[in-house]
Amino acid sequence: MDIFLTILVVISLLFTILSIIRNDNWAFRIFDYPRLQKFVFSFLCLLLLFIFFKNTLYYYILIVLVLINILYIGYLIFPFTFFAKKQVLNASSVKDEDTLSIMIANVYQDNTNYSGCLNQIKSANPDIVLLIETNKYWEENTNELSENFAYCKKVPQENTYGMLLYSKYELLNLEVKYLVEDDIPSIHTFIKLKNGVDVRLFAVHPTPPVPNENIRSTERDKELLLVADMAEKCKDPVIVFGDLNDVAWSYTTKLFLKMSGLLDPRKGRGFYNSFHAHYFFMRFPLDHAFISKHFKLVSMKRCKNFNSDHFPIYIKLQYDKNAILQQESMEKDADDVKLANEKKSKI
């Protein structure tokens, strides 16, 4: 039993240590994802140590190591619990002309439950819909969305990186850009709210650091940081949304938020895990909507799955001219700027 417990403790510590190492290889970055799972695993290790406790120095050392691991992981996930301070304030006295609602849905390209997807969109009734992993079949089978969404930009692709953007607001100065990789698009556009305020939108879906996609996170990180630069320079309200293939608590997401000046509405509210829809014990928040300080949150929810490997995420925001003075973004320092510049210079 001593050997078994030691192995469990070493595994729990190793998973944490590997995620701390700032190496772009997938073998390190993949451990960014299961933070809640690592917390539970470490807690189970601690429980077993107490159950089979022996009054020896060795066991005391194991217990202390596991406790340190639990405290460290808990510190990292605490901002995404209900006990933490909300980074985005709740909206009050909601006015229709000031609101904007968005639904993000990674449909899973091989999924054929088109009607299920359409039903979820109809139920949520968002102002903007971003469908990700969409090919020609998904384009053809969701065309009826044009009945309720007067404006759209379709970038269907067969490589699981296609996008369909539907909007009830006119898409202004619209561009499809391939910021890092020639076959990975992002959609950049403005919309004008009913109150006349211009909002800058960036719809993104960078590649994940996994062996069958990219063996490193370099491309993903570079794309996100390039978008962060554009968001930071924009004086209008900004929303960056999509499947970012990174979890909300990773150091790369923190770097993105620092460099962009955007806020995460999850903080203080919960994880809103969007992937993997079919395995409850392996779920992470991969689908995001990061927003500028001009917005407050009306509501946010995870919608029902329609046979995809992702749950759709719905978010409703309210533009508030006073919000920018009431909310704080993460501050960047010289080390953050240096790291971001290094990442943007790679490839």
Query: How many helices in DSSP terms?
Result: 10
Which structural class should the secondary elements be placed in? alpha+beta
Provide the spatial order of strands within the biggest beta sheet. 3-4-2-1-11-10
User: Which band does the percent of strand residues land in?
Assistant: 15-25%
- CATH-derived topology of the largest domain: Deoxyribonuclease I, Chain A
Distance between the termini: 48 Å
Task: Label the CATH architecture of the largest domain.
Answer: 4-Layer Sandwich
Over the alpha carbons, how many angstroms does the gyration radius reach? 21 Å
Number of domains: 2
Proportion in helices: 25-40%
Taking all residues together, what is the mean pLDDT?
Answer: 95
CATH homologous superfamily label of the largest domain: Endonuclease/exonuclease/phosphatase
SSE order in H/E notation? Answer: HHHHEHEHEEEEEHEHEEEHH
InterPro entries: Endo/exonu/phosph_ase_sf, Endo/exonuclease/phosphatase
Protein name: Endonuclease/exonuclease/phosphatase family protein
Keywords: Endonuclease, Hydrolase, Membrane, Nuclease, Transmembrane, Transmembrane helix
Organism: Flavobacterium rhizosphaerae
